[in-house]
## 1
Amino acid sequence: MEFLSDIASLINSTLRISTPLVFAAMAGIFAERSGVIDFSLEGKMLMAAFVAAVGTYYLGNPWIGLLLAILACVSLSMLHGFASVTHKGDQVVSCVAINILIIGLTTALAAAWFGQGGLTPTLTEEQRFLEITLPFADSLRDVPVIGIIYSDILSGHFVFVYLAYISVPIVFWIVFKTSFGLRLRAVGENPSAVDTAGINVFAMRYKALAINGVLIAFAGAHLSTAMNANFFREMSAGRGYLALAAMIFGKWHPKTALIACLLFGFTDALQIRLQGVELPAIGEIPVQLIQAIPYVLTVILLAGFVGKAIAPNAIGQPYIKER
Amino acid sequence: MVSPILELININKSFGHVQANKNINLTINKGTIHGIIGENGAGKSTLMSIVFGLYQANSGTIKVNGNEINLKSPKDSIINGIGMVHQHFMLVENFTVLENVILGFEGETVFGEKLKKAKQDLQKLCEIYNFNIDLDATISDLSVGFRQRVEILKSLYRGAEILILDEPTGVLTPQEVDELFTILRSLREEGKTIVLITHKLIEIMDLTSEVSVMRQGEMVGHTKTQDTDKEKLAEMMVGRNVLLRVDKSESKKGEIVFKVSNLTVKDDLDVMRVKNVNLEIHSGEILGIAGVTGNGQTELLEALSGIRNVEGGSVELFGEKISDKDNFLNPRMLKEKGLAHVPEDRQRMGLVTDFKASENLIFGYHDQEPFSKSSILNHKKISEYSNKIMKEYDVRPNSPDLVTSNFSGGNQQKIILSRELNENPKVLLVGQPTRGVDIGAIEFIHQRLIHMRDRGAAILLASVELDEVLSLSDRIIVMFDGKIVGEKNNKNITDRELGLLMAGVTGE
């Protein structure tokens, strides 16, 4: 019985840990499917975390904090678009610039405004998002099987966790079942075909980037107003890059990207669970070794373990109409 | 009965300092096939891209059915019934035919009823014109000929009354060209107007009723096709008399110089591209390789010239084995043994386009006297040599210091030829020698190749231009799917026979 509840708590934390990755991977799918590389998921996530924490602290409502984070991230996406779509700059360089800018900016502003060494003030229980207990979770707890699945795994998450997993089928539906999705995929594969069909290539890419900004803001807000109660420096801790890797393993497809995110989330959950545990025959594994698991996995997967990932054909190339 | 459907009045268009179109006037009559002919860079494609709304003219007026229209994007021209089939197809390769056709004209936000209706409408269109296309096929699985039909279908579905085709036959086999022309004629019967852009005179004579000629951005003449002939048109295009046939004597075949046995080659994606190829070239002979692009010619030439590894088999030069799987000579060593290579993609492999002409002219010999001594370049000698050789090969303009990308395609090709031919190679490998080269320069390049042959060189010529293979080669082999599917003596062979071989139809 203890074994079962161990498994349940492992799955529970996998879902929670994967949440920002899922949002970020879905955000990445929109940008990259439209032909714009998005390395700046990391920077944008950090920006969203900062803006959500500060906005919530001053205005007292985490939803308003989220709204401000969305505004901030969409602005950053537009900046990326302005540099790399309108002015045809190098997309990777633009992203790197955004990432560096945001790391410095958030740390400096947090220090200047609050003087707590880069932390923002801790939000109160009323201010931040809290875990949601699903209806009847308590009364169903003792029912075998269903009790564990419903009460221990599905119930008791932050609102973002539910939103993240709902977003996956919605993204799938938009990308593959709507005319917007058809145009989005076309513009990342062959922008000339889109242009000659009478559709504005630049407008399509800006629209994709706007959606990208909205989605990534959820990831950041989850970090600073739900999972934690404040912002601290570099709190995104590489999740943007990890999500990008997940999106690539997932071959720019929402379903497989979700699986990759869950895999990363699972290894992370596992390494937390394994810390300090005595394993039979092996003994206690050093913490550093365990913490390296997700990264080792990334390298192994990146080395082509999951097969060759074929990127959208026109990715990274600014659209130039007249020579 | 004859009424103009499309009128262009005083169209001007510049790209930077280059004026691509100067005061163009053109009237196209309804229900005709109207040819627009001109050399590469004459401004034909630019003009038609303006009509299609892809580029915006600097000045001028465009009228459709007598009404002035304002074209800001392809959307405007599509609304006005103008469709265009581009030289490089505007298709999304991993989409289905259906998805490509409806792109931009989905008619609904979420796919449902309209998609079903579009499919039915398209099936009807396919039946009317006998297109024989599977709407659910993915573009990347289709042959070039079928992709072109998808482009035509796309324009028709979007309501095109005027269909512009930009160099439609460049990538097709002769049979596919026939099929295309049948489709175009039946479109004309249905009352559609067709504008055919081409540099091939024979297509103009075959298909059009009226023809307009462009030269250096200007419209230099309009005429009824029945009132003109190929020679007159060529003269209008180039501005001087041009020899359309290649004058050559019987070849004086010598010993076998170059021998390829059981050669197999893989491409970058590890796909077998050249399968068990055997061939021999004698001195004083041009061996032509005919075939549709992508049937292994590229990889064969790359392997023979030492820039791609050989998977199996061997290559012999004068009886000496120069390449097999384990021993592989690099291009430099091959060059020293007397092998020269004019690559198919001259801008990617033949030239450093950002270099000066003089630098490209000596590339590969730059470390030899008199061009350099103790690793230091002798600019005076290089400049003297460049001036001399550019005059000899008629490279225009004759300015060795000009950056290579500023020369036209034909003159860039002359720069490569002069470099490769100057050392009197014993074996010459040539890929697409006249791709993107204008008629005047084609004449010159062909003469040079014949000249080399007459001096005893063994020449391997790969070209997708069937006319070129037929007019230059002494013997012709046809490649299909990496294999040699036929070898013919170039005396009593028709392009029809070759075409069948190129399409993979074997057996007598």
Note: Chain B touches chain A through 30 residues (CB under 8 Å).
## 2
Amino acid sequence: MAQTMELSAAKPPLRKMRRTLLGTVPVQSPIYELHPATRLFTLLFLGVVSLFIDLPEINILLIIAIFIYLRWAKVDISGLKIYLPLTVTVAIFMFTVSIAFPGADPNFHSFRFLGITFYLEPLYWTFASYWRLMAMLFGTIQYFSTNRERETLVAVRSLKVPFVITYFLSLALRSAGMFLEDMRTIREAERARGLDETSMSLRDRAKLYAMYMIPLFTLAIRRTDEISNALYARGYTPSGKLENEKQRSDYILTQYQFRRIDTILIAAMVITFVLVGVLRIGFGVFAVTQSPLRIFLLSLF
Amino acid sequence: MSTAASENVWALEEGEVRKPGIAHIVALALFTGIGIVVGTFGSLAIPIGFVSAFWPGQAIQAVGSIWYGMWGGIAAFVFPLISNAMSGSAPLPVSMAYIPANFVQGMAAGWVFRQYKLHPALTSARDWWGFTLVGIIAANAFGALWGTSVLRAFGLITPAAHLVAWAGWFIGNSVASWVLGVLLLKFISPLVIKTKAFCKGYWA
């Protein structure tokens, strides 16, 4: 008995995790102190603000800020490894295109390296565009890494989006989850029969991918009938109104509280976004020509 | 001529009334969900970046509009907003700029099948040609042109690289979409046309 108690005492405490759209986050994450609508605003802010910022220095800082935010939210950063090949291939593609097709401007500053002529201006523009793209991508990915479909739904309902749209959105996100679950079952069944996807050629992987689709679609189409029958039986209408014209009560909205910190954060994001937009469009601030690194590189010529 | 080939699945039966209903919204939602997964995994399986050189999502767009008309057209531009974000292939503003191309990539096939009364299960040579020429080639030619123009507008490709990026996008997408689209239409259309969510018109 004493031994059993000792063993159980030595066990580390169970860390409860919450599955998000792209990964897992501990239930105790500080991010859940924020209202889902505030988190949705982080998507709109971080995912779009770099559109007005060409300066790679600021975009790199934004990416660092996003990673600090994810770290603070206790998100399992290792889950983001799936994006590593993409970040590399995007860079390879962008720089190859920029080197092979630099455009013909006699004012470009050129230099030769390994027998190839490089032009600084298009190359630096590509460098700036790459970081702008990465900042917007990670601004978007952070949202899907920290939120479940339920929270997306709460956020859009809090913004008073019509019932039919929120219902469609929630069902779409949930059906993506169901579809993935079905796909996982089929894949595991194939692996259990000895299929090794990693040793397959690109062509065979594409073929296999297409073959998954037939059973998955059949399941989904059957589900369409089942869900629509179930909704009809429960008296759902696209307007979300009951027969007596009253609105349905929204239970999940009562589970989330909108605090003062949410108001402050949303206001800060909106003000910053508008300010950055006005500075960029009205006054040309954040243009690539103002980049200190670019100015330094040009001074070398 | 076989019975299936002569069958006009788009014609209304005598006294048949078709109205948009909850089944269409559910079909739209489920199709969007499927599109999210197919689009995300299509981009992640072969990561080439924002120039989509293998994106089977276009097959989902085309097949969706053939089966579910305008509902499929809506799904065609909604699901890439989410799948592009999840796969990291395009940020939100770029995905928003893709909306017209995604809608056309979806609706081109839906339009040609309804306009020329083609069978969704590809039972005759006409059906094959209609799907291949309009649903895949014309749709992807336009989609790739719009998409590469968006990339150029966002400064992600240089003007000199526009044609090369267009060709890569068009050929890669067309091949992937044709293969997946044909499989879906041949094997699943016979099942779908019997369901109440199938749209003989554009909305019902």
Note: DSSP finds seven helices and no strands in chain B.
